[in-house]
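Q: Convert this sequence to structure tokens.
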Amino acid sequence: MGSDAWMAPHLSAGWLATALDFEMLPPASKPGDVDVTEMPDRSAAEVAEELGGRHLLHYVHESRRGTLALRDRWGPCFVTPTPYSPEEASQYLYLPEPERLRYVAFLICLDGIDAVRGPARVSIGGGIEYYLPYGFTRDDVETRWEVTVR
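A:
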């Protein structure tokens, strides 16, 4: 490559992953257009096909490490198909306490999920979110434990 070669601007991996997800997924609503919790239920099989078999991620605080074994079911929650670093998760997703970085995530397999709502574009941050109105069980977590995100 010569010095006059075109150079792409510096983009984070999270930005690139989000952009690729928007290309792959059906058009997500514009930020603020819809509350994903009020969208109609969709079958997990339909969403799994839409995602090409990918898992959904539920990011949690470090303080939740080890709690999966203590609970049979996690209640309603937001999830995303997009992998983010701890710093990026709070930038692209509308997470409570965004100053507390998420180093822990659950990889959720859709096979046992009752219903999914979304996708929708996160109004603050611009990432992609789905909503699990009935939550998930520990059996829905692919690795049966949380994973560390770096």
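The helical segments are 13-24, 44-50, 86-92.
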